[in-house]
């Protein structure tokens, strides 16, 4: 079970300051030993990313999460809890870990996103499609061989079968290729396809949707950017989200720590959520939404003098325009070293942001001031009880 701890000891991995952290391949006994070490330091917490996060926890995974929290005497948060009304049993099963932890003297908190996170795919570079059972060997071939395999009807049929099978788990959500939207394209033959739905193009060409998608990508040497349309954007799923957010062990948020910066764009969830609360679905009153985004995480993580507007607290403030606060469409930009790509979404309606009392953003523009600081466990955090 892959796992990550916020403050641990290991001989194989270290953080940006050279301090050791847990290996993703640590055994349960090692993780429990690390959890015990976490509990010996003030202001620490545990974060876990396990195989069952995306689909369904096994009993062994639940037992381990519970024991890690109880052993450390620290809250453990995991990400990310997906909410889809088409699988109503998913949320209660995942939150079983929280119920068992409470009884064992621990606390397990699920992180969940209040928006549908923009996420793109590609047949050319590693992405979630590679994680579908049986797809890895095909998508791991050199590009010419990969294209040849993908053009083989028998290979495509088997790939579709595996993608739609029970063993694919949460990745079954990616198997409706007719609902994909074509993003950036790179060949003359694909001119004009950007923004179009694969189903529509396939109907025009008299092709199966997956065959059509493969041919579009093959024309670009597999560089085509693909945007799967979400399957959980229905009223029932949003109602289930609103209900789940009220659970005492559910917190808004989620992060891959930038690991998929050209694949996923979760950063704008705060402004998009606020806009939705004010002018969209209005699932949560504005005051409650602000608390969910500020004070709730500050209390869970024990951030000292942060999360509230109070005399003596750090002046971390946001001035927003309720008439238009939102997030812009996710776009691929090339501004990393070596012209590396990343997804970017502009904040809309943010009039000013103060960090430690200094204006860092004014009218949606970054001022260049960098008054923030890296928070350190113990110095900037207090120890949070698990009860």
Pick out its properties.
single chain, disordered N terminus, 4-stranded parallel beta sheet, 12 helices, 15% strand, globular, 387 residues
Describe this structure as you would to a colleague.
The chain is α+β, with helices and mostly antiparallel strands and 387 residues long. Helix content is 31%, strand content 15%. It has twelve helices and 16 strands. The strands form six sheets. It has a four-stranded parallel sheet with strand order 3-4-5-8, sandwiched between helices. A four-stranded antiparallel sheet has the order 9-14-15-16, with no helix packed on it. The protein has a two-stranded antiparallel sheet with strand order 1-2. Helix 2 (59-72) packs parallel to helix 3 and helix 7 packs across helix 8. The radius of gyration is 22 Å and the shape is globular.
- Could you spell the SSE succession in H and E letters? EEHEHEHEHHHEHHEHEHHHEEEEEEEE
Continuous helix count:
12
Query: What's the average pLDDT?
Result: 92
Count every beta strand, where a strand is a DSSP E run of 2 or more residues.
16
| Beta fraction | 15-25%
Shape: globular
Structural class of the secondary structure composition? alpha+beta
- Separation of termini? 26 Å
Query: How would you characterize the largest beta sheet?
Result: 4 strands, parallel
Give me the Rg, rounded. Answer: 22 Å
Q: Summary?
A:
The chain has 387 residues and is an alpha+beta fold. Helices cover 31% and strands 15% of the residues.
What is the strand and helix layout of this fold?
Layout: E1 13-14, E2 20-21, H1 28-38, E3 46-48, H2 59-72, E4 75-79, H3 90-104, E5 107-112, H4 136-139, H5 143-150, H6 153-163, E6 180-182, H7 198-205, H8 209-219, E7 226-228, H9 235-245, E8 250-252, H10 269-279, H11 286-293, H12 295-301, E9 317-320, E10 326-327, E11 331-336, E12 340-344, E13 347-348, E14 350-355, E15 358-362, E16 365-366
Parallel strand pairs: 3-4, 4-5, 5-8
Antiparallel strand pairs: 1-2, 6-7, 9-14, 10-13, 11-12, 14-15, 15-16
Helix pairs in contact: 1-2, 2-3, 7-8, 10-11
